Amino acid sequence: MASPITYDYPPGPPGQQTFTAADDLARLLETLHTSGTLRTLNGLLAQLQDVMAVVLDGLNTDEGRNGIANLLVLAKLLGRIDADGLDRFVVALDRGLEAAGERLEEKDDAPGSLTVLKKLRQPEVRRGLDAALTLLGTLGTQLSDPQPPVYSSHDGKDGAEP
User: Fold this and answer.
1) pLDDT tens, 1-33?
2) Where are the chain's structural domains?
3) Residue 10, φ and ψ in degrees, nearest 5
4) Is the predicted pLDDT of residue 161 greater than 60, yes or no?
5) Please, what is the Cα angle at 33 between 29 and 38, to 5 degrees?
6) Which region ranges are annotated with the description Disordered (predicted)?
7) Which string of b and e fits 94-132 if b means at least 16 CB within 10 Å?
8) Measured in whole angstroms, how far is the alpha carbon of residue 89 from the centre of its chain?
9) What is the DSSP string of 11-68?
10) Does residue 162 carry a pLDDT above 50?
11) Long-range Cβ contact pairs of 94-103 (< 8 A, separation 24 or more)
12) What is the pLDDT of residues 70-88, one digit of tens each?
């Protein structure tokens, strides 16, 4: 789980205990100017109508509408996933990929069939194989299910006209 970021406020100007709002604003403007962000924002705002026209033209296509619908579906899906379970899955996937990469880097011969079959005796291998087969079985069932989609009924052709 992520840990909170601690932030210590910088000390005030000499002779003052804290920054005033004007001090904070001046410091923000200086930071934005130094980083080039202020110039970028000024350019963006000066050309806002042109930028928005390009963005809206891109969104007003089948691909744009499908992209937005797909983002919404993914956002709904991510909202349903248990964070701790996803964290365990990602850590396990990372470690599995690392172990597989190390194994592929070894220069010895490929393991024999009996060596591979012996791995099926390991409970961790069977547990992972069962999870993968369950995932594939569920995926196959859902792909052949005539029911409407769970997360979206968007077909990209909802009659929206440009």
Assistant:
1) 678 888 777 666 676 666 678 888 988 999 999
2) 19-80
3) -65, 155
4) no
5) 85
6) 140-162
7) eeeeeeeeeeeeeeeeeeeeeeeeeeeeeeeeeeeeeee
8) 15
9) PPSTT-SS--HHHHHHHHHHHHHHHTHHHHHHHHHHTHHHHHHHHHHHHTSHHHHHHH
10) no
11) 96/128
12) 999 999 988 999 999 999 9
Q: Are 10 and 16 in contact (CB under 8 A)?
A: no
Amino acid at 47: Q
Identity of the amino acid at 19: F
Total residue length of the chain: 162
Ranges 18-27, 105-114, 128-137, 146-155: which has the least confidence: 146-155
Q: Strand, coil or helix: what is 62?
A: helix
Closest CA to 116 of 125, 106, 108, 124: 125
